[in-house]
Amino acid sequence: MIEIEKQPERVRVVDINELYPDVERMPVSSKLRTYLRQVSLKIAPEKILENNSYLARLVTESSLFLPEMFLDRWVKHWEYQVAIALESIWISSTIDFAVNRENEIIVIDWSGIKSDRIAVAQAYLLSQRLGLKPRNIAVVSLIANPLNEDRRINFIRRLFEDNDFYICQQELNQRLIILTRGEDLNPVPEPEPKFDPLLDIESIPEIAID
């Protein structure tokens, strides 16, 4: 009798953005990310800042409030692919981060929003993939300030504790369950019925006919 080899089950991979379709991004500037990447690769053109005063200001503020991106002792990883398995489904993401010799990691959040759940989830994925404690990972979010502010960017650093990543894991599991059921992760609220005075019988005054 011929034995038929059992085929391995197909592994499902979900990008983390699929779990958060309700997150609207407002990045500061794609040119800043490109320039910082060029700095880490030692190929940043010197004259580009002379011809772009706005980018030059962003770079100056970044060097003051995000100095890790300009220091050689911090190794930069751009578009780092990471994936972990949750509930038999692999969650993947692409992350920009810097790490030093003490295994301290800074995840760069380019979303432009103050409380980015995706950035927190990325930090959680990275901690699981690299086997690091939550206290070894921080997220720096770059938020655009109004033009009347002294600074163009507000750099928000977020540190983590064990409970933060536990909450994040529970949320990811819940969203995976909703996704596998085929339900909407960003349901549109049903509009409230408009009040029609013509349908309110009790409010219609009685008319006496002689």
Indicate the low-confidence ranges by residue numbers: 198-202
Mean pLDDT: 85
Would you list the SSEs in sequence order as H and E? Answer: EHHEEEHEEH
Q: What's the overall geometry?
A: globular
Strand percentage lies at: 15-25%
How would you classify the helix and strand content by structural class? alpha/beta
Distance between the termini: 100 Å
Task: Compute the number of strand runs.
Answer: 6
* Portion of residues within helices: 25-40%
Question: Using only CA atoms, what is the Rg?
Answer: 25 Å
Please count the helical segments.
Answer: 4
Oligomer: single chain
What is the makeup of the main sheet?
6 strands, mixed
What do these coordinates show?
- The protein is globular and about 55 Å long.
- The relative contact order is 0.15.
- It has helices spanning 30-40, 53-65, 117-130, 162-180; strands at 13-15, 75-86, 89-99, 105-109, 137-144, 153-159.
- Strands 1, 2, 3, 4, 5 and 6 form a 6-stranded mixed sheet that branches.
- With 210 residues, it is of the alpha/beta class.
